[in-house]
Design goal:
The structure holds two protein chains of two kinds. Chain A has helices at 12-38, 43-50, 53-86, 92-98, 101-104, 107-118, 125-128, 139-163, 167-175, 180-209, 212-218, 228-237, 241-275. By secondary structure, chain A is mainly α. In chain A, 45% of the residues are buried. Chain B has helices spanning 9-18, 23-52, 57-62, 67-100, 106-118, 121-132, 139-144, 153-164, 167-179, 182-189, 194-223, 226-232, 242-251, 255-286. Chain B is globular, with a radius of gyration of 25 Å. Mean pLDDT of chain B is 89; it is low at 1-6 and 289-293. Classes of the chains: A mainly alpha, B mainly alpha. At the A-B interface, helix 1, helix 3, helix 4, helix 5 and helix 6 of A face helix 1, helix 2, helix 4, helix 5 and helix 6 of B.
Chain lengths: 276, 293
Amino acid sequence: MVLKQKSILPGFGPALGFTLFYLGFIVLIPLSTLFLKTATLTWGQFWEIITAPRALASYRLSLGASLVAALVNVIFGLLVAWVLVRYSFPGKRIVDGLVDLPFALPTAVGGIALSTVYSGKGWIGQYLEPLGIKVAYTPLGVIIALTFIGLPFVVRTVQPVLEDFHPEFEEAATTLGASRLQIFLRVILPTLMPALLTGFALAFARALGEYGSVVFISGNMPMRTEITPLLIMTKLEQFDYAGATALAVVMLAASFLLLLAINLLQWWSRNRLAAL
Amino acid sequence: MFASGRLKRGEASALSRARTEPRAVRWALIGAALLFLGFFLLTPLVVIFAEALQKGFELYLESFKEPEAWAAIRLTLLTAVIAVPLNLVFGVAAAWAIAKFNFVGKNVLTTLIDLPFAVSPVISGMIFVLLFGMQGWLGPWLQAHDIKIIFAVPGIVLATIFVTFPFVARELIPLMQAQGTEEEEAAIVLGASGWQTFFRITVPNIKWGLLYGVILCNARAMGEFGAVSVVSGHIRGSTNTMPLHVEILYNEYNFVAAFAVASLLALLALVTLAAKRFVEWKTQRQAPPRGLD
C-alpha cells in the first residue's frame, strides 16, 4: 500500500508533522480527558447522572428549543435567501451583509441585546407582554436566542443553490402549463431540499451547544429554562467534575451524530447536483 | 440556454415573467423577510448602541476610563495576539499538507480539524479544567511547580486557541485544493526553492482567503464567551476578557457600562462583516468569468 503519492513539491513532512503535533496538543489530548474522566465512573453512576430529572428536563429544553429554532430558520432562511437572490429592493446589499451578523457578533453581546429587546420593558417585549406573550425568562426566550444564532446557516446554504438554479427548468415548466406555486413546490423546492436539510442540521447543531446568547434571556431556572450546557456549567462551578463530564459526553455524542448526518447530507447533495 | 434565442418577442417576455411573481407577491415576500430580519437582527444591533448612549456620550466615554474595562480590553487583545498567529501558522501548514499532497488518512485529518466546531463552548473550556485544574490530571504537578493555568491567563489563551482552531485551515483547504499544484510544480521544476515557491506563488494565490480566515479567527478569539468563562475564574481586572466583563457589568445592572463595552465588540463584528464583503468582492474580481455551463 502506498501511504503517500509521489510529488515533487517539498515540505510535506514538516507541514504534516506540525499539523499532527498541534492538533494533538490543542485538540486531541484535551478532548481525550473527557473520556478518561468518564472512565472513572461506573456504568451505574454514569447512567444515574445522565438520567437525573434535572438532566432530562435540560435535554428536553435543549433539544426542543433547538429543533423549533432550526425549523423557524428553515422557513425564514428560505424566504430571506429567495428574496435576496430573486428580487431587487433598496438596501439589498446591506441586508445581505447583515445576515452574517450572528456569526460575527460575540454571543454574550447578542445575549444581552436580545434580553433587553424582548424583556417586559424592551422595544419589542413591551408590545408582546399585553398580548400575554412573555419572552424573557421563558422557554420562548431560549427559542428566540437560538433562532438568532442559527439564522445565517440556512440562508447561506440555500443562497448559492438558488443562484445556480437553471432558468430552463422553470421556463420548461411554464411552457408545460404549470402555475408559479406548482413550479415552486415541484421544481424548485425539491432541488433546494439537500441545502435546506444541511442548513437545518447546521443550525440545529449550533443551537444544541450554544451557551452565551441563551443564558441572559433564559433566566436559568432548573427544570424550566435550564439548557444542558448551562447545567454542565453549574456542575463545574460546584466542582462536580464527574457529573459535568458525564453530561458533556452525552452532548458530544449528540453533536457527532449530527456532524455525521451533515456530512452524509452534503455528500448526497453533491451527488444530486452532479447528476443534474 | 436552449430556447430563448429563437423565441418571438411576446413569448420571451412571457417566459421572463414566468420566472418571477406578481408585484404584490414580490413585495409581500420582501416585507416578510425584512420584518423577520428586523426583529431578529437589526433591533438587537441597534439596541446595543442605544443602550450604551442612553445617558449621553460623556457617560459612554466614562465607561472606558474604568481601569477594569481597560484591563479587559488589554487581556482580550493579548489573547487574540497569541491565538490568531498560532492558528494562522497551523492553518497554512495543514492546508499545504492536505491540499497539495495525496496521502492515506487525509479525510480523517480534515474531519479532526473541524472537531472544535462540533464541541459546545462550555465543553471546550471544561476539557482544559479537566487537564490543568486542581483536580485535573496535571493539576498537582502544576501546583507543585507553582504554575497557574486555570483561572489565569494561560487557560484563557488555550481555550481561545481551541475554539478558533479550525478557522484559517477551513478557509484555506478548499481554496488551495481548487487551485491545484501545477503552478507550484512549475516553479520547482524551474529551480525555485520551497520557500520561494511558497512566498512567490502560493501566498499571492491565497492571500484573500488567508485574510478572511484570519479576520474570522480574530472575531471569534475576541468574542468567545462560553469556553473562556469556564477557565477564567472571573477575577476582576485580571482574568476578565471583554465579553466576561460585559456579563459582570450586566449582572450588576450597570447597563450603560455593559453596553458600552458591548458596543466595541459590536463594532468589531461590523468591521468583520465589512471585511468579509471586501474579500468576496476582491476574489470575485480575481476569479475568471464563469462560463454559461
